[in-house]
Every structure is written in C-alpha cells, then in structure tokens.
Write a structure and sequence with these properties.
The protein contains seven helices and eleven strands. The protein is an alpha/beta fold and 232 residues long. 36% of the residues lie in helices and 24% in strands.
Length: 232
Amino acid sequence: MAKVSALILSAGQGKRIGGRVSKQFLEINGRPLLAYTLDQFQSHPLIDNIIVVTQEEFIDYCRQKIINKYGFAKVTKIVSGGKERQDSVYQGLLALAEDIEWVVVHDGVRPLVSTPVITDVLRAAFEKGAAIVGVPAKDTIKVVKDDFMVQETPPRKALWQIQTPQVFKKEVLVKAYQEAQAAGWVGTDDASLVERLGVPVFVVQGDYDNLKITTPEDLVYLRERVSRRRGC
C-alpha cells in the first residue's frame, strides 16, 4: 500500500482575526483550533503520518500543548515554516521520509474538513495522479481592472472555489516547488505550481463547511459547529 503523509500548515499569523494569539492556537470550546484539524488526519485510515509546519517560536508549544497533550501519535515531525505559505510547504516537503509516495497538503485552519472529503480526494489522486477539493462558486464572479471597471464576467458554471486538502505524488509536488523556486514564481495554491508543469489536476466536490477560518465571524460559526457535533 502506498504511504501517505499529510502536511498540515500552521505557520500563519492570523492578522485578519485580531488578538495576540495566532488563529491556529485559539481555543475553541476548550481545545486549540489546530487540534480539531489534526483529529481528522490522525483518525483517517489512509494517512500514515503527519508533519506539522509552524512558526519556529511555536514548535515547542505545539509539541507539548497539542501533539503530546492530545496524543497525536501520527505526527512524526514539527518543522519551522517560511515567510510565505509556499516557503512553508517547501520546508514540509524537505522533511518527508524517503518512503512516502503521496503528499496531502492541508491548511491547519480548516478544522471542519470531513473524513469523506479526505477519502474522496485521496482516491481521486490515486486514480488520476493529482486531485484537489473545491466547491462550485455560488456567486457571480467578475474580473475587475485596477480602475474598478468590470473587465469580464466568466460563466459561473466553470468557476470553483478551491480548498484543501490537495493531494499529489511526492515527486511531482517536489519538482513543482523546485522549479517554481528556481524561477521565482509564486502560486496561490499547491495545484497552481503542479499545473505549471503541465500535469493534469482534477477537482473533487468538497463541502461548503470546509471553510478557512479567517475572520471573527468564522470563529463564531466554528464554535457553533463544534458545539453541535458534541451535542450529537
């Protein structure tokens, strides 16, 4: 069976959320937000190990207060991230064991990702080579120029909001990052770097609940969802 490693990105500053604590460490109903995300990968049968990428100054905190405290035995490494998200992913890739064949990249602040979504994107990647999670855009999207004039309105049926997890063969993702780094090219997600190589990437239907916690309103929603799950 192919070995799968999950890179959980937790190096962001969370500036839009406010406060003195990075959003991935905010307590939600008594537990750090990051712990909810790790739960989903710790319990998934297709995930062999987990690498957490966080800020250098939070490595010990993350190990003691989250990994050890909550018993996340699949976490084999905690590594320091870089200045930008792309730098952090690359640091995670450098930490992968040699026997890993597939890499799952997931935002640590998407704690509502479900087991079925993880399973679906993994199976799609195993079959097709590269797969990402997304949901159809609900709103009309317009391309707007610098002077705020509408340039065009793309057909909505072709537009998807892309999320994580994103799954790739290890050698493909490593090559994509190496070539992007050499060219000084920055993408908005991991798939964009892989697409740049000419590798087909396929989209799996995700879940609108799988939001990236970014604003105070997102935190309110998350607390409600966690309370509802515990009540059930």
